[in-house]
Amino acid sequence: MLYIVGYGEMAKAILRGLKNGKWDMENVGVVGRNEEKLKNIEKEFNVKTFLLDGFDITDKEIILAVKPYALTEISMRIKGVANTLYSILAGKSLTEIEKYIKAKFYIRAMPNIAAAFSASTTAVTGDVEVKKRAEEIFSYIGDVVWVENDDEIDMATAIIGSGPAFLAIIAEAVSDGGVYIGLKREIANKLTKGLFKSFSKIDMNFSEIKDKVMSPKGTTAEGILEMEDNKARGTILKVIKKTYEKSKKL
Ligand SMILES: NC(=O)C1=CN([C@@H]2O[C@H](COP(=O)(O)OP(=O)(O)OC[C@H]3O[C@@H](n4cnc5c(N)ncnc54)[C@H](O)[C@@H]3O)[C@@H](O)[C@H]2O)C=CC1
Ligand SMILES: O=C(O)[C@@H]1CCC=N1
């Protein structure tokens, strides 16, 4: 059995990913505070559910998917020593997690919301004894990248965890731009979605892509001048820096 503590956005995205990947959902348990919410999860995903109060984690594999600030409360409501604790909490280091929840092995992972479509890229670190098992579990929700340490998970959070929200804002702005110059919204949205799909398939370095698209005296060069004039590159760089710094304050 694999247990997930929490039934929020990320927990549900992981459940969807596991289901897509044909994980045996009867061997998944969801643990939470609210009986009604647990009943809904049970119906939606065909999993077993358990109330958090007094839940015994002994020898179990647990994915912790609650709010980072809930760590203290969780530690007071559960009992026992888990086999492996997989934490997806932003900003909570392995050392900190170890203080609150007892387990033989610890893994810290940073997936993203694309887990729901088995398309997350998940950064993972922790005890090498369970590296293979961690890679196996998180491969159900997409690709897995093993990183060196906790700090790299915080850095990955800025790109992988939060990244979909940043790209959503950029995508929305691109589509708005299309509407501004005269496209129907439906077409602008379709083209923008298509752009992201096309981009994900181009197997080249980022600078190579830019060089191949930017023709002398062309349309792209005009757009790039506007981006550079408005410090788009520096702004995005600072977005990543600020997001990383915030994870250190959670
Ligand atoms: N939303 C995202 O895209 C990503 C989120 N994460 C991490 O996943 C975790 C969950 O985030 P979301 O699903 O977005 O949040 P959410 O707000 O959708 O869900 C939070 C869950 O935590 C539970 N919870 C909150 N306080 C609690 C407490 N005191 N005791 C017990 N349970 C409590 C809630 O009942 C809920 O099930 C966070 O630690 C976040 O940093 C990581 C990667 C991506
Ligand atoms: O915004 C947050 O704090 C979480 C962590 C990464 C994505 N969502």
TrEMBL record:
<comment type="similarity">
    <text>Belongs to the pyrroline-5-carboxylate reductase family.</text>
</comment>
<dbReference type="InterPro" id="IPR029036">
    <property type="entry name" value="P5CR_dimer"/>
</dbReference>
<feature type="domain" description="Pyrroline-5-carboxylate reductase catalytic N-terminal">
    <location>
        <begin position="4"/>
        <end position="78"/>
    </location>
</feature>
<dbReference type="GO" id="GO:0004735">
    <property type="term" value="F:pyrroline-5-carboxylate reductase activity"/>
</dbReference>
<protein>
    <recommendedName>
        <fullName>Pyrroline-5-carboxylate reductase</fullName>
        <ecNumber>1.5.1.2</ecNumber>
    </recommendedName>
</protein>
<dbReference type="InterPro" id="IPR028939">
    <property type="entry name" value="P5C_Rdtase_cat_N"/>
</dbReference>
<comment type="function">
    <text>Catalyzes the reduction of 1-pyrroline-5-carboxylate (PCA) to L-proline.</text>
</comment>
<dbReference type="GO" id="GO:0005737">
    <property type="term" value="C:cytoplasm"/>
</dbReference>
<dbReference type="Pfam" id="PF03807">
    <property type="entry name" value="F420_oxidored"/>
</dbReference>
<keyword id="KW-0641">Proline biosynthesis</keyword>
<keyword id="KW-0963">Cytoplasm</keyword>
<dbReference type="GO" id="GO:0055129">
    <property type="term" value="P:L-proline biosynthetic process"/>
</dbReference>
<feature type="binding site">
    <location>
        <begin position="65"/>
        <end position="68"/>
    </location>
    <ligand>
        <name>NADP(+)</name>
    </ligand>
</feature>
<dbReference type="InterPro" id="IPR000304">
    <property type="entry name" value="Pyrroline-COOH_reductase"/>
</dbReference>
<comment type="pathway">
    <text>Amino-acid biosynthesis; L-proline biosynthesis; L-proline from L-glutamate 5-semialdehyde: step 1/1.</text>
</comment>
<dbReference type="InterPro" id="IPR008927">
    <property type="entry name" value="6-PGluconate_DH-like_C_sf"/>
</dbReference>
<dbReference type="InterPro" id="IPR036291">
    <property type="entry name" value="NAD(P)-bd_dom_sf"/>
</dbReference>
<dbReference type="Pfam" id="PF14748">
    <property type="entry name" value="P5CR_dimer"/>
</dbReference>
<feature type="domain" description="Pyrroline-5-carboxylate reductase dimerisation">
    <location>
        <begin position="151"/>
        <end position="250"/>
    </location>
</feature>
<keyword id="KW-0028">Amino-acid biosynthesis</keyword>
<keyword id="KW-0521">NADP</keyword>
<keyword id="KW-0560">Oxidoreductase</keyword>
